[in-house]
Amino acid sequence: MKSIYVTRFLVAALLLVSFSFTADAQKKPKSPPQSVTQTIGDLTIDINYNAPSVKGRKVWGALVPTGQVWRTGANDATTFEINKAVTINGKQLAAGKYSLFTIPNEAEWTFIFNKQAEQWGAYKYKEAQDALRVTAQPTTAPEFTEQMTFEVDEAGVVSFLWENLKVSFTVGAEK
């Protein structure tokens, strides 16, 4: 008789544990994967990133340090892919897939297009692999953005928005 109760107890405990693992697996990721794609004529711009949220935290100079290479998102480094050669803020960039890093600063940001496209964070970032660096001035965003976002408009302006900040660069088709 005792063995039946022990068996039932063990089965119930096992089911309870398996339900808790299932519930954890179904939770929304803290920094969900996002992507934005824009086609301008025969140019396609594709940006893939993991989007962290502010969640009441101080972002600039705390969560995201200034003056250091940042993966520009969470988890894997953000990727920037173009199907043909372009100019970024007037500087040439060959067609391909790049990791998109930034160096945030109060007065100026540096956008880095790194040839090693698949990277976790910025831990193995190597400046020698940079294909291009361009600078841009941050501005106050028109509205608060809780979850980090990239937007690409029909004119090829790529905007990074998070918290009260907006930083943009322009992608132009090479002629």
Summarize the structure.
The chain has 175 residues and is mainly beta. It contains 1 helix and 10 strands; from the N terminus they run αββββββββββ.
Order of helices and strands: HEEEEEEEEEE
User: What is the topology, as strand order, of the major beta sheet?
Assistant: 1-2-3-6-7-8
The total of beta strands comes to: 10
Cα distance, first to last residue?
84 Å
Q: Evaluate the radius of gyration.
A: 21 Å
Class by alpha and beta content = mainly beta
- The tally of domains stands at 1
| Shape call | globular
Given the structure, what is the number of helices? Answer: 1
The major beta sheet can be summarized as: 6 strands, antiparallel
Task: Describe the structure in your own words.
The chain has 175 residues and is mainly β. The protein has one domain. The protein is 14% helix and 45% strand. The protein has 1 helix and 10 strands; from the N terminus they run H-E-E-E-E-E-E-E-E-E-E. The protein has one helix spanning 2-25; strands at residues 33-40, 43-50, 78-82, 86-88, 91-93, 96-103, 109-114, 130-136, 139-152, 157-173. It has a 6-stranded antiparallel sheet, with no helix packed on it. The model is unreliable at 13-23 (pLDDT under 50).
What layout of secondary structure does this protein have?
Elements lengths: L1 H24 L7 E8 L2 E8 L27 E5 L3 E3 L2 E3 L2 E8 L5 E6 L15 E7 L2 E14 L4 E17 L2
Antiparallel strand pairs: 1-2, 2-3, 3-6, 4-5, 4-10, 6-7, 7-8, 9-10
Considering the chains and any ligands shown, give keywords for the structure.
45% strand, six-stranded antiparallel β-sheet, mainly beta, 175 residues
